[in-house]
Amino acid sequence: MAAGGRAVQLRKTLSFVLRHQPWSIGLVLDEQGWVEIDELLAWAHASGRRITHAELLEVVASSDKQRFTVSSDGRRIRAAQGHSVPVDLALAPQVPPAVLYHGTASRLVAAIMAQGLRAQARRQVHLCTDIDTARRVGARHGLPVVLVIDAARMHAAGHVFFVADNGVWLTDRIAPGYLSRLP
């Protein structure tokens, strides 16, 4: 596969189809977000998007964020997290680290601190374990700000956390009282 542009375009196409609009190429995800790889490739081809099996596996393997998961038998694929369509990733609840982080843009901080973090168009709020990742995520949306989440206190209060296949921490909502801004 050609490096750079082609790989980025394939990753974006896969993200769009597996997270947000599978029907755009005629796909139907199962309840846990899986689709047969052969079916994905056939529908992609029929809709004018030529993707080979080798290219698909290369995009999966080379994704810095490990956005996609291939089933253990190698026959199915799904997005690891970030869905806006209803799926149940069948993730078991996990005990989070004491602190988690969320990157956002500075223009959104006042509203977040007043209202908390909500999933918005996605199914859950995405969190990470390190400041650098949070800062990179925030930078995608403007001047980055890193928010600190008191995950230990949330968990003790009964909030449920999950870890996606790619290591992203997920929860449904974070109330303002569990948030602070990294200085």
Walk me through what this model shows.
The chain is of the alpha+beta class. The protein has 6 helices and 11 strands. The chain has helices at residues 5-20, 37-46, 53-62, 109-115, 131-139, 151-156; strands at residues 35-36, 68-70, 76-79, 100-105, 117-118, 125-127, 144-149, 162-163, 169-171, 173-174, 179-181. The chain has a 3-stranded antiparallel β-sheet. A 3-stranded antiparallel β-sheet has the order 4-7-11. The chain has a 3-stranded antiparallel β-sheet with strand order 6-9-8, with no helix packed on it. Helix 1 (5-20) crosses helix 3 (53-62). The mean pLDDT is 88.
Mean pLDDT over the full residue set: 88
**Roughly what fraction of the amino acids lie in strands?**
15-25%
Largest sheet: 3 strands, antiparallel
Give the tally of structural domains.
2
Cα distance spanning the termini: 43 Å
Shape: globular
CATH topology of the largest domain: ADP-ribosylation fold
Secondary structure: number of strands: 11
Alpha plus pi helix count: 6
CATH class of the largest domain: Alpha Beta
Rg over CA atoms: 17 Å
What is the N-to-C order of secondary-structure elements (H for helix, E for strand)? HEHHEEEHEEHEHEEEE
Uncertain regions: pLDDT < 50 for 5+ in a row? none
Biggest sheet: strand arrangement: 1-3-2
CATH architecture assignment of the largest domain: Alpha-Beta Barrel
Task: Work out the helicity level.
Answer: 25-40%
